[in-house]
Amino acid sequence: MSYYTCMADKLRSGDFSLCDIASCAQSHWSEIEEVISSVVGQEESERIRERIRVLAEVKGRCSPGSEDLNLLSLMVETFLGGLGLSSIDRDVAARLEELCSLFAENNVLTEGRARLWRRVVAEIKERLSKGLVVFDGDGATPLLAVGADDLPWALGYVWPLFVEQVRGKGVDAVVDEALSAIHAGRGVELAGPPGTGKLALMYQILVDLSKDGFTLYAGQQDAAGVLHGKKVVFTPGGYTVVPAGWSGGVTRVDVEGRLTLGELEEVARRLASWDGVSLSDRDLSELARLSMGRPAFVELAMAYVSLCRLKGLSCELPRSIEDAKAKLREITPREVLDKLAIPASLGFRCFPSPLIEPDENEEAFVDRLLLRYDALSLYSWRSGVSREVFRRVALSPPNVHESVFASESPFHAAWSTVMGAKGAARYIALTALDMVPDEASFQALEAVAVLSPGTLSKLLKDATAFRLEVLARFAENAGSLAVAEELVSKAVGILSALEAEELRSEREALSLKLAELQVSRLLPELALKTLSGVKPLDEEAEYSISRLQGIAYLNLGQYDEAEKSILEAMRYASGKGLKQDHYYLRILLADAVAGKGRIEEAREKLDEVVKELTREDCGLAGLLFEAAIRQKQLKGKLNYAVCAALTRCGYPDLAGTYGCFS
Question: Parallel, antiparallel, or unpaired for β 187-191 and 250-254?
């Protein structure tokens, strides 16, 4: 029995006593301890636990004082935060309503908390009456904006983290062909047999798109239709990239035989250097010739030669890919073959490093066969072809998802696992929900939300909007914005379906939160769509709409609309004395003005903001840095008053980034 089942049973009981709440809390303290600690702190949590133990031992009538009532209200609130409607009925809802009145009458609940309780009870009653106990909501937008530096793990091609990529006539021709198609509004799909370098070429296409000013998104290519402007969506682990607004046209680019002998020889040279293997120019040329245009052959051959040197053997170069596969399998120790069989059975090149744990005498072999990137806690096969060398078709690896939570980087581990192990998303999500609010759980869920949208929503199909909102706050604090978007989107859907007037203000507030998350995820198109459906109930909501619209329009390059919205927001911020917001909006206004080509006016606005912020308190140092960076870009020189202010405020890192110590 869980804490939530225990509470539901006690609340519907005819002889319910307030100390029954303490009894459930004491019996299931390990289940709720982390939640309580995250709210009140570890020291206060220990004090609460001791007092709960005393209350749980009370026999007969329970009449707690105001302090104990406050503790019990916190226990009930914890129950509300994890509530699944499938475990309750109208009797439980009625009891919760009684408790709300009791705690309010005893001045235990603040006005805000009482309003929250009434809202949760109202939702429960509405959903029970309308048969909406289970609600199937949408998932997060299946896109993740990534920078060029993030491409290796997002794409699943980590060689660039170890070896500089080769560029020559062959590579450039493929890249140019792909870029031309993207500029023409068509998608690009790289085609060719295994081992022809499709993933490496896709990486270089994406790098060039980034240099050309395109924003890169990893995710489902169908989602590109909601985007506008210079943006592309690529498929993680795949060979497809499509532009914003894509309607289905694809140009297939055959990459077989496109790399020149010179490029392949340079690939061999760089891999030999990285492997610490000395090969003659003649051998390097021979490798390029034998490759038949396939860089995967070079990678396999270099791995084989490296193992030969490790064993102190003098080996001849393989003559073909099949020969290289056979030689590599033959020279690899049996115990290493067995350990590599599990990750080889997955469908993705990268996988979490805890998935294999080589013994001390196996590490040298594993590190020559795989690429290990400790910063992300990832292993990767050198190529898709090398993975096939160790694959066993009959192998079905159990509990692969467990390696995600043993990883130093659960997000990257989950990303690779969801891509590579069919059905892993659900198991990762189930495990992560049991670990909430541990930050690692939300890191793992972030990958699930992007790569398997809707998985999390299905597992929370009977959750209240309040529970979803609580989880979303934890997710946002952990930096897992896709998770937060999915949860808030589902909560908005629930409240919209109920159409209850008493839940209207919460629905509008959550819609604003959804738009804010979409802006933060670089999805301004969706944010504007969300905002178009919000009906503001007061001036504060109108301000939030104007501010978010201004940011969204800026991101879309719609500078006239951005300027208008930002000016509207500035009037409210100034009138209400919102100093930080006002400065932030003034910086955004300078961006909008500069975007419209009024550069001198933008300089003047930034000069004013920077001058004022250098004299303000240090709590605004972040805004000073943001304004100063823009000022430097427009004027081409440092402002030493900024350096002095950032240093005085104790931000040498910001001062260094600004260029003060150059």
Answer: parallel
